[in-house]
Queue: 2 jobs
Job 1
Amino acid sequence: MDEKIKEQWDINSEAFAELIGGKGTPHHRSILVPCIERLLGDVNRKKMLDAGCGEGYLSLRFAKKGAIVTGVDISDKMISIARAADTEHIVNFQAGNICNLEGLADEEFDLVICNLVLLNVPCYKEALIEFHRVLKKGGTLVVSIVHPAFNFYGPGSWEMGEKDPQTKRRKGLYFKVDNYFDEKEYQRYWKKRSGEKFPRPISFFHRTLSNYLNAISNAGLVIDRIEEPLPIVEDEFFERERRIPFFLVVRARRSANS
Ligand SMILES: C[S@@+](CC[C@H](N)C(=O)[O-])C[C@H]1O[C@@H](n2cnc3c(N)ncnc32)[C@H](O)[C@@H]1O
């Protein structure tokens, strides 16, 4: 399974880097990143793991804010792209599997971030156990996923209306969900900015909200904040994102004595 996932991201790596463009999509910039940064607080001089770092833009963003960042991704191709973007050599980018971070020592990091990755891994429970292991006592995990209750890469989808001539997006009439309790893999093609399809479909693993939250807790981490972030801008582009939460962001801590 890991080989299949690695191959998908290797083959899609250039298309993914084009989509992210070194700065994130509008959803990253206006919804996820502001929330993640608020939950992390000051990162200066903190040792941070960016788990599933992709083409590396978040790792670089936090390194420029003074964090000492290690970025790990299963795709060697994604890591090559991240290293090439890191012209100042300020991030330690490594190929690796977040479900078995064997190269990383116990209690190495103050902060672990994992942005939109757990929904792409079959072994999310093992990854959370690894995040607990590599966090220092009192350290902080911030993890984001597509909201499991409104999972458009799973059992949910929008019933779509006409294309809005202003935003060029079709209007969402309502969001429908069925078979929420079926935890299974869905495959979806992403599109580049140009509208061209990615070369391979991407695997998304749907899980219930309770299973995600209980897995964090079962890994020994203490959840202290749950956010369903709204866009920080009033842009018409985000009309659907103001009606239901697209993302779930959780902050959890390794306790000071375990
Ligand atoms: C949707 S992308 C998110 C990338 C990045 N976190 C961001 O915010 O742009 C998911 C990433 O997870 C990586 N990935 C998938 N399974 C992984 C695993 N088991 N270990 C490490 N990385 C993994 C993929 O290669 C891909 O780069």
Note: Residues 2-20 form the longest helix (19 residues).
Job 2
Amino acid sequence: MIKTDVLILGGGLAGLSTAYHLNKNSGLSALIVEKEKYPGGAASSIFRKGFTFDFTGHLLHLHDPYGKKLIQDLLKGNLREIKRSSWIYSHEVLTRYPFQANTYGLPDSVIDECLLGFLKTVHRPTKTARKTTQVSFKDWALRTFGDGICKHFLFPYNEKLWQRKLSTMTTEWQGRFVPAPKVSEVLYGALMDQTKAFGYNASFVYPRQGGIQSLPNALSQRLKKNQLLLSSEAIWINLKTKEALVKNLGIVSFKRLVNTVPLTDFISLCKETPARVLSAAENLSSNSVYCLNLGVSGNLMPGKHWIYFPEKKYPFYRVGFYNQFASSNAPAGSSSLYVEFSRDSKTKVRLSHMESLALKALRDCKILRSDNRVIIKEWLPIKCGYVVYDFKRTKALNTLFPFLAKNEVESIGRYGAWKYSFMEEAIMDGKKCAEKLALC
Ligand SMILES: Cc1cc2nc3c(=O)[nH]c(=O)nc-3n(C[C@H](O)[C@H](O)[C@H](O)COP(=O)(O)OP(=O)(O)OC[C@H]3O[C@@H](n4cnc5c(N)ncnc54)[C@H](O)[C@@H]3O)c2cc1C
């Protein structure tokens, strides 16, 4: 039987960072078990016929001084800083992101609806919600931006992305993800092409070579020999005996457990889980992202990083261009792009059908032209893509986290902690977790 002080489930950024920081700051032994053949989880890349594809766009937003320094050190000489160029395609025109600050270029009637609706929100005092009532994302968006902006972008786009009624979602997630421009900026952006950048990702960094995979690879290289075990899926966990059955390894005995696997999956791996915990986990929901990666001849949409598609006639919610982040992501004279679809995680999908819809729609909006040849197509499904912040989530987590704490499980990262977060935060989660374990 293998024995370790700390068993880490998952070799994504959160798991890798936990082991790295445990090695640095504690005398504890740590072992990562990762079910795939490669490290990185959602921050991985695949390499096909000279094209590099990530699991849709993975751009680094560095906000924490420690996280920034560590990532810059890990990817020394291999990072490029890029000013975002993101767009929205609707009413057959491209307008700048974010929609609410950039309606210039849309048909006059659409601009009128957006501005009038927005100005009404400015002149109407916001109703204070009763303390016991949580405002839904739908009501918040209407109150903040008005009915025109909601009708033409915020509602259709978010319904496509989240795959559920926006009245069932809370506002807990949107703070940094939905920019709220000033009145003057909304007006200015309706009258002329406003180049001012808004939002948390106005600029980002990305590896010059090797796709986003170069980040988990660099972190893996800082681990001890045989500390990261690939093709090693956790099959079950017994929290009482502190043992796990791991594919290709057998039983692993541990003192402390760190989970980075999606929380819902983790709970189903645990033996003899109380019914109230199982039913709390059933109340958590997520969407699945299906990423169609394409390698195409020709230089598509030069200078554009990604485009949002709010309208129903386009089956995807976003299309982006990896080769605009790093030219090494596609052979010279060609483009590598990602086409993102979202479905509720319980929905069955037919990828062949989605693929034909995608190719037709890409031609309809003229991203693909008749002289562009599709060289390679590859689907990358992300089963747990975005955690849904609905009204059941907080209540469920208030049952699940005390259960995990009682059983000495740290559940971290984007999916372990069941949150909407980024790569730098996954690395920071691992650091904080290691520091906590070192003190135990
Ligand atoms: C569509 C999309 C776009 C994104 N874009 C960005 C972006 O632009 N910028 C950004 O900073 N972040 C982005 N993110 C978020 C980023 O991918 C995550 O925050 C980060 O990669 C999460 O790392 P993690 O270690 O917490 O989870 P994961 O990467 O999911 O790691 C968990 C690991 O557990 C493994 N695993 C699962 N089950 C088992 C098992 N039973 N046994 C062993 N191993 C198991 C998985 O294979 C995986 O490797 C995006 C995410 C998505 C889905």
Note: Residues 9-15, 33-36, 41-43, 56-61, 233-234, 260-261, 265, 289, 382, 385, 413-415, 421-423, 426 surround flavin-adenine dinucleotide (CB under 6 Å).
